Each structure stands twice: as C-alpha cells, then as structure tokens.
C-alpha cells in the first residue's frame, strides 16, 4: 500500500507501509497531518484514519530507516483532495512551472486504452452520470425565459461536476453519480464566468451569421465568397480557442482556481501537447458522428468514452506521478 502525506504546503510520497510506520513512530506524522492512500475519497487528518488502519502498521525496518534519512521524497499531487482542503494548494503559476519543467507524456493510444480501462471499472455509473448530465442540461436550457440563464448558472456547473466524476474514475478514486452536482459547491461563479467568456467569443460568429441571413432575406442574394470565408475563419479561430480552454471546467472544480487562472492553465498545458490533443479531439468528434448515426441512442454510449479519454488526458497533464 502506498501512502502520501503533507508537510506544510508540500505533498510527499509515495512511501510504503513500513516507511510510513516509521514516520508515525518518529513523530513525523502528527495527529493533524493530512494523509492519503488509494481508495480514500480525499485527504484526511491522521487522527481520523489511524484507528481504522492500526492493524496494518508494522515496525520500521532498516530499509524504512534508510528511506527516512535519504533523499527527499518525491512531491506528488493531491489524489482526491477537495478544492477547499485544509492544506494550501499550489498557486496556479507554481503548478504551471512544475508541469512545464517536467512536461507530461500522453498519447491518443494511452488516453484510449487507460480511459477505457477506467471506464470498465464502473461503466454503468459513467453512463448514469452522462444521462443525468444530458437530461438536466436539456431541461434547464428549455425552460421558457430562463434557458439563457441556465447556460451560465446550471450547464457549466454540471459540466464541472461531470469532469470531476471522470477525473476521479481515471485516478481510481471513490466516485459517484452525485459528483455531477459538485460544480454547484466548488467554483460556481468561476464556472459561470468561463461560460460567459465563451459566449462573448461566439458573438462575432453569431453576428456574421445574422448578417448573412438578413442579407439573404432582403435581397435574396446567396452569400458571397467573402462572407463564406469569414464564417470559416471565425469558426476555425473559435474551434482553436475552445480546444485550448477545454480543461478550464476541470481545473476550477478539481483545483479550485479562478476562471482566469483556469483558462490560462488550460491554454498552457494543452499547448505543450497541442497536436496530440488535437488528434484526440478530432477522433472524439468522429466518435460523436458515429454515435449520432446509430439512431442517436449511440451518443449515450459514446459520450462516456469521450469523457473518460478526456479525463485521462487531464490527469496525465496535472498529476506528477502519472
């Protein structure tokens, strides 16, 4: 069993049970020290965990003592740490500096294989989360007079919650369909701001389309090459920006950053593996078309796959031991 623990604002580990026992015996793990291991939903004080794992601890060995006095332990991310955790999280710029310095490995094949492997651990939960997201988003956006507000106050929050579900699934952490509502508890305003920024970016594209439609209604003229070119170029720019922002919802809910910081971090880390993630994104679009062709019902089965692959790419980028 691999353990992680916090020292001030740093995450340390992994260490095995023998080494961890030595840390406890030497007083380096205090009752208020936050600890985590695989299977725990979030970091918790050692005083809370100790009674349930007392029988697992063992006397430290020479190897454990050597580990304690050797090289500094590797710093790790916070598996399962809530955005509002009691240990101060890394500032966005510091996290980005670490990601940039070490880079991260990801590939289309890796995202597909590990994404599918994670999905198989709880496929029906993933499908239920997907269906609930589609249902709640559709209902909220079709409420008369309130549909537009739902685009800022309901849908992005559900999107953040769905990201959190699949991120936890990718890491092998505890996850449930109820995670989809976490976006209403974590970063509600920041998620709304991201949706607002995306809407403002769409305005030029919408303006060009409206101009073309009005011109056609008044004059009956087909759109000229210039208008068509403008639509294509604006659409291409929007696609590029949207792709670079795609981790923003996940970062807000999972890391607790502001909308601006989340957009910046998403833009930067996707830029490190842009062509790989572009290829993955295009493949996911093909999956969507395939699902739509399967009498639309296929979308319900394709979307969990897409979500699991996207979450794997995010985990590859954020987690330092992935």
How does this structure look, described?
This protein has 322 residues and is mostly helical. The chain folds into two domains: 3-89, no CATH class; 101-318, no CATH class. It is 65% helix and 5% strand. The chain has 14 helices and four strands. The protein has helices at 17-25, 46-53, 62-69, 92-102, 108-121, 123-141, 147-153, 155-171, 188-219, 225-244, 248-255, 259-272, 274-293, 298-318, and strands at 3-7, 10-15, 34-37, 44-45. A four-stranded antiparallel β-sheet has the order 2-1-3-4. Helix 1 (17-25) crosses helix 3 (62-69) and helix 13 packs antiparallel against helix 14.
The structure class reads mainly alpha
Helix amount, in percent? 55-70%
Please report which band the strand proportion falls in: under 5%, 5-15%, 15-25%, 25-35%, 35-45% or over 45%: 5-15%
Largest sheet: 4 strands, antiparallel
How many E strands? 4
Q: What's the overall geometry?
A: elongated
Strands of the widest sheet, in order across it, are: 2-1-3-4
Count of DSSP H/I helices? 14
Spatial separation of the terminal alpha carbons: 17 Å
Order of helices and strands: EEHEEHHHHHHHHHHHHH
Count of the domains: 2
Uncertain segments = 60-88
Determine the mean pLDDT. Answer: 81
Question: Measured on Cα atoms, how large is the radius of gyration?
Answer: 23 Å
